[in-house]
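Could you please review the protein record set out just below?
***
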Amino acid sequence: MASYKSDIDIAQSIEMSPITEIAKTAGIDDKYLEQYGKYKAKVDLSLLNEVNKENGKLVLVTAITPTPAGEGKTTTTIGLADGLRKIGKKPVVALREPSLGPVFGIKGGAAGGGYAQVVPMEDINLHFTGDFHAIGAANNLLAAMIDNHIYQGNSLNIDPRRITWKRCVDMNDRQLRFVVDGVGGRVNGTPREDGYDITVASEIMAVFCLSSSIDDLKARLSRIIVGYTYDEKPVTAGDLKAVGAMAALLKDALKPNLVQTLEHTPALVHGGPFANIAHGCNSILATKLAMKLGDYAVTEAGFGADLGAEKFLDIKCRMAGLTPSAVVIVATVRALKMHGGLAKTELGSENLSALEKGLPNLLRHVSNIKNVYGLPSVVAVNRFPTDTDAEVELVIEKCRDLGVNVVLSDVWAKGGEGGTELAREVVRLCEEETPHFTFSYEDNMSLEEKIEAVVKKVYGGDGVTYLPAAKKELNKLTDLGFGSVPVCIAKTQYSFSDDPTKLGAPEGFKVTVKNVKVSAGAGFVVVLTGDIMTMPGLPKVPAAEKIDVDSNGVITGLF
């Protein structure tokens, strides 16, 4: 393993087991399996009600505030599951599906890395089993039915200037952010300003990932607000009679996808909402199925713990009735030195001063998991060859002061073998410590009180400033009956604050809420701070330029 290989080289060098073998390992009978070729399958939802076994322990993997130096959250999640298997446990991984936008853009795929990957990584990072296409189709069917309704006479009295539903495409395409459509004469529709989101930012994705059954999916779809009438009343997908057809497009996609890690540990990869505009976790159905099948269900949440973990705990766990048994917080010495003010080019040499300045970022995340949410946790340090013993010792010492252990993880280079120490600590937490799980806010608080609770308790801020448009919308949503739902705060992933330049653990800041909007189907209110992009663009040199396929169909350049 000494010579460098790319992620795709490593993935292609390992022989996969047939998916029927992985299903046997997971305890899935053949009758519940719908195969998509030799190495992928969907699992029928009826299995959830028919497995007669106590639920396994739920382990959440989250991370410090992300930096360009990288943290390796998905890699750690997969390596931890393989490590649990190495020490004789029965784990099942539950992960999000990657979006095509980042795959062809700047971030790359999301199937892990090194010797801790889920495979077939090319399929998972590209079309996979077609779930995202189904979600895009359902989204765009609803969009088509809105405009058709207006064209055919508009009996619902929809105001074309107040349509909130956008079309979507699973690609980074800045050209589509703002468009004018319906031009070219009366037979071509009603001209209006419109726009596109990337598929993972569609409310259908959030609905899909929070649904517990087809019936629940249909109920959520019917509540989606697509716009408002001339007299300011909400119009829903149910009003447009779009729900049955949308659910028909989504019925197969709703079944979780079964794949494997490089070490043949069962993995469920299903759904993938944006982690800032939505809740950033895989589907509730995949998580529940992983808990039903394994002794340990290992899952992750997007971005740092202030976004991904907060939403996993305050939204997903609240809606699904889940309680995690342990939380893993992933950090790297390199990223912490960036939080301490070093440039990416200066990370290769020892710098205890920069590390000490950056460590409060990790410590705030650790404190939040322990003191706000009442959950047992461990810090996993992804070790890089340039990390010195003194730097690692400083991280261990500072975390010990908070009563949290630090474990070195080497899963990128060694797979499950590099995750056994982390696995043992996770098992110890699950067996010896009791979660005293609480949310950061209660249902009966007002929307403003919920936002303030997250800003003060989780972000470490002093309070909230509301722009007039946000204040007006909050009052309106409360009047419409949405005051009791959770809040989903959309902010930059690069800082605890709403300012991406404030690294480390900033203090004395206020978060400015520019606007709010209801995702009535998902069941939360999205709180918009800063400039949140729901349709990314490609970089100057997109990853797509390096991806190719040879005459034998072998793909190169994916990472």
Notes: The chain is about 35% helix and 20% strand. The first strand starts at residue 33 and ends at 35.
